[in-house]
Design goal:
This protein is α+β, with helices and mostly antiparallel strands and 406 residues long. It has two domains: 3-52 and 272-404, no CATH class; 81-259, no CATH class. Helices cover 56% and strands 18% of the residues. The protein contains 13 helices and twelve strands. The longest helix is centred in the C-terminal third of the chain and has 44 residues, at 266-309.
Length: 406
């Protein structure tokens, strides 16, 4: 018996029991759709994290004071004052792998303009900070090197600050705002960046010369951190090693001493977030994949019923010359047809569900071709695996006993 005839017989058998065939497919349909939707959400989140990190500067390096042990007591990193302006200047002059570097100090308080006020913080930074953080001035200008040298009371503000202190829509450039009773003249407004993937408002920012914040707001000589950017993402590790060597030398640390500073890179953050996202995606896909197993068991159950119902038919076919391999192929084709048809419907439903999630919940989604192929391949394998045993049972029937079966 050729393959075309077997295929026609299998189609005819499924057509005679349309509802039963559809209900059998349902487990496969739900499983495939769930897997595709879960993978689309996971991959979309991963891509969103990557783009957000790229917007923050994928080659950014953050240096902060580290914890220290004094008299057997571990001190908090926030209490340490191990980073000085001299360290920043040495790094700026001696490093070979950095495209930019900026000190960072910050003070929290209340911003006031007339009758409008807003709680925020002022960050003291250098000129390279905009390039490091992928920021740009939309209106006005950035403060100058002369402003840094003279500790000028000037600032650049973000859109959130503008909306809260200048709700009438007036141009803030040239206006004076107060921070903890100290006047700052606004020289520029930053281009809006919105919220990042961690829900932080990137426009709630006030930038001022680091010397101004250190002298006029904090009265300190130490830095809360140093931001830098490597020449390229590939050179980040080289830059970190170079920074580590210079700071250990500057802090006169011996070989057995631990670093009194910490260095973090966006690559490290990206790797951590991606690994977490991959873990959650795999977990969700595995949970959704259980539906495929349930669907496979449904196929096996229905094929068993089908073999039992058609025992006499099988006996008649075998008595007129059908071989065991023909009977095996016939029932196996039926199982595969149920599985593949369910897989196709599941793929369409999964893609549709993914777009609905994006439109309604506004979650980032990304349907990868490999996820569709993987789901389709798994459902096909499921059909073969769970359809084989009932088909083999049918092929092994004795023709005489099958004809006598009631």
């Amino acid at each position: 018996m050729n393959g075309t005839n077997l295929f026609k017989i299998a189609l005819r058998a499924l057509a005679n029991n349309k509802m039963r065939a559809f209900l059998t497919m349902l487990g496969i349909i739900i499983g495939v759709a769930s897997v595709i939707t879960m993978l689309a959400i996971g991959q979309g989140s991963k891509q969103s994290i990557r783009s957000q990190i790229a917007e923050m500067g994928s080659n950014m390096i953050m240096i902060h004071p580290g914890g220290d042990t004094r008299g057997g007591v571990r001190r908090d990193a926030s209490e340490m004052q191990t980073l000085k302006l001299e360290n920043y200047e040495t790094l700026r002059n001696e490093t070979n792998y950095l495209a930019g570097i900026s000190p960072n100090v910050s003070s929290s308080g209340q911003l006031v303009n007339g009758n409008n006020n807003y709680p925020s913080s002022v960050s003291g930074v250098g000129l390279d900070y905009l390039d490091i953080r992928q920021l740009s001035v939309d209106n006005g200008t950035m403060f100058t090197e002369n402003d840094i040298q003279t500790s000028a009371k000037v600032c650049v503000i973000g859109k959130t600050i503008v909306d809260n202190l200048f709700p009438d829509g007036s141009d803030p450039v040239g206006k004076v705002i107060r921070f903890n009773k100290i006047p700052f003249r606004v020289v520029g407004v930053l281009k809006s960046k919105g919220y990042n993937s961690m829900g932080m408002d990137q426009d709630d920012v006030v930038l001022a010369p680091y010397t101004t914040v250190m002298k006029r707001l904090l009265a300190t000589t130490s830095l809360q951190g140093i931001y830098a950017s490597a020449l390229s993402e590939e050179m980040t590790e080289y830059a970190i090693d170079e920074i580590t060597d210079i700071l250990r030398r500057e802090h006169k640390l011996k070989d057995r001493d631990e670093d009194d500073f910490t260095i973090r890179s966006q690559q490290e953050l990206s790797t951590m977030l991606n690994s977490t996202t991959d873990l959650m995606t795999t977990l969700l896909a595995c949970i959704a994949g259980i539906s495929l197993v349930v669907g496979g068991i449904g196929i096996m159950n229905i094929m068993y019923v089908s073999v039992t119902e058609r025992t006499r038919e099988i006996g008649l076919r075998m008595s007129v010359g059908a071989r065991g391999i023909d009977i095996l192929s016939q029932f196996l084709i039926e199982a595969i047809l149920i599985s593949i048809t369910g897989g196709i419907i599941g793929v369409l439903l999964g893609c549709g569900a993914s777009w609905i999630v994006k439109a309604v919940a506004h979650w980032p989604i990304l349907i990868q071709p490999w996820s569709v192929f993987l789901s389709f391949a798994v459902c096909t394998v499921t059909g073969v695996f769970f359809g084989w045993y009932p088909a083999k049972k049918a092929a092994d029937l004795d023709p005489i006993e099958a004809i006598r079966y009631e």
